[in-house]
Amino acid sequence: MSRATPSDPDDTQHTGSDRTPTRSGDVPVRLVSVATELFAKHGFESTSVQSIVDAAGVTKGAMYHYFDSKDDLLYEIYGRMLRVQTAQLERVASADLPVTERIRAATVDVIETSIANFDDTKIFWRSMHQLHPDKQAQVRAERRYYHERFRALIQEGQDSGEFRADVPADLVVDYHFGAVHHLSTWYRKDGWLGAGDVGRYFADMLLSALRP
Amino acid sequence: MSRATPSDPDDTQHTGSDRTPTRSGDVPVRLVSVATELFAKHGFESTSVQSIVDAAGVTKGAMYHYFDSKDDLLYEIYGRMLRVQTAQLERVASADLPVTERIRAATVDVIETSIANFDDTKIFWRSMHQLHPDKQAQVRAERRYYHERFRALIQEGQDSGEFRADVPADLVVDYHFGAVHHLSTWYRKDGWLGAGDVGRYFADMLLSALRP
Amino acid sequence: MSRATPSDPDDTQHTGSDRTPTRSGDVPVRLVSVATELFAKHGFESTSVQSIVDAAGVTKGAMYHYFDSKDDLLYEIYGRMLRVQTAQLERVASADLPVTERIRAATVDVIETSIANFDDTKIFWRSMHQLHPDKQAQVRAERRYYHERFRALIQEGQDSGEFRADVPADLVVDYHFGAVHHLSTWYRKDGWLGAGDVGRYFADMLLSALRP
Amino acid sequence: MSRATPSDPDDTQHTGSDRTPTRSGDVPVRLVSVATELFAKHGFESTSVQSIVDAAGVTKGAMYHYFDSKDDLLYEIYGRMLRVQTAQLERVASADLPVTERIRAATVDVIETSIANFDDTKIFWRSMHQLHPDKQAQVRAERRYYHERFRALIQEGQDSGEFRADVPADLVVDYHFGAVHHLSTWYRKDGWLGAGDVGRYFADMLLSALRP
DNA sequence: AATGAATGAGGATTCATTCAT
DNA sequence: TATGAATGAATCCTCATTCAT
Question: What is the pTM assigned to this prediction?
Answer without folding.
Answer: 0.83
